[in-house]
Amino acid sequence: MTKINLQSKSDAFHSFVKQVDNVLSGVQTTTPDGQPIEYNDDNFQDAMKRLQAIHFKFENGPMYPIGVDQACALVWNEIESKQNEMDQNGI
Q: Which pTM does this prediction carry?
């Protein structure tokens, strides 16, 4: 996994990145009974809703840059990345 060293000074951007990372890190790859996570599973839907709620906080009001399509793509990408990592580690 690549580590990112943010060079920007924007507090709003740093907060946004940390919040997205926090949500994605909680995404599960399987259900409690061991089945692969699917779009309709609670964990998937919760992660999508939480991503869509993340916003930039500016003086003139909040801005919500993550819509349904972006949230869905991010969650699927996180699941795929975690599965690839488990495959590489023989888990």
A: 0.90
